[in-house]
Design goal:
The protein has seven helices and five strands; from the N terminus they run H-E-H-E-H-E-H-E-H-E-H-H. By secondary structure, it is of the alpha/beta class.
């Protein structure tokens, strides 16, 4: 598909409805990218950026599995007209290896999402040279972002996409953040207001259309 065709599809899905229905999408994405970024992925990013600029919609991007990927993905997206403060970069907790990378990326102004809460195995089958962080390490990364003034640019999630992570099959389920992560955050000095900003304010700000 050309950039124009992708943009037209996004516009239809948001403004008219999906697949002939009147059910409209509320977010662009997750716009998937690998590493290195392919030509199609660049077209997809540019089309998504153009539609975000036109419609004022939220967007979420999926970076490749390399610490350089979020930076390059955002560069392409922003140069095509994307809006940083309406955009989420997902999966940063399996992409960045240290606090410095998180803080450098946060300067771009988009939402930094740590969305693999509940995954506590060091082996990452999709990128064997990288160790998957624990929830405690994710919380520490968030603390560093907040301490550097990025409290309004943090989002959290579970990225649940397999049955074994549901409670029915012995997993932690969709309540894991509320039942287990938030208490741990408070034990580590997070205030009620900081938790509310991350869980309530930031998602609402991101998901609100600006046009």
């Amino acid at each position: 598909m050309s950039e124009e065709a992708i943009a037209a599809q996004i516009r239809e899905d948001i403004c008219s409805g999906v697949d002939g229905t009147d059910t409209c999408c509320g977010v662009i994405g997750e716009v998937g990218c690998s590493w290195p970024i392919t030509d199609f992925e660049k077209r997809s990013l540019r089309s998504s950026a153009a539609m975000q600029s036109e419609l004022g919609s939220p967007a979420i991007l999926h970076p490749g599995r390399n610490p350089e990927a979020p930076f390059e993905t955002m560069r392409i997206f922003l140069e095509a007209g994307g809006v940083a403060d309406k955009t989420v970069m997902s999966h940063l907790d399996r992409t960045f290896l240290n606090t410095e990378q998180f803080l450098e990326f946060a300067k771009l102004g988009c939402y930094c999402e740590l969305d693999l809460f509940g995954v506590e195995v060091s082996h990452y089958q999709l990128c064997k040279e990288m160790d998957m962080p624990s929830d405690a390490q994710r919380i520490a990364f968030i603390r560093a972002l907040l301490d550097s003034g990025y409290d309004r640019r943090v989002l959290v999630a579970h990225d649940i996409h397999t049955k074994h992570r549901l409670k029915k099959y012995g997993g932690h389920g969709y309540t894991h953040i509320l039942e287990n992560v938030v208490p741990k955050m408070k034990q580590r000095g997070f205030t009620e207001e900081e938790v509310k900003v991350i869980l309530t304010h930031n998602p609402a700000e991101w998901l609100t259309f600006t046009k």
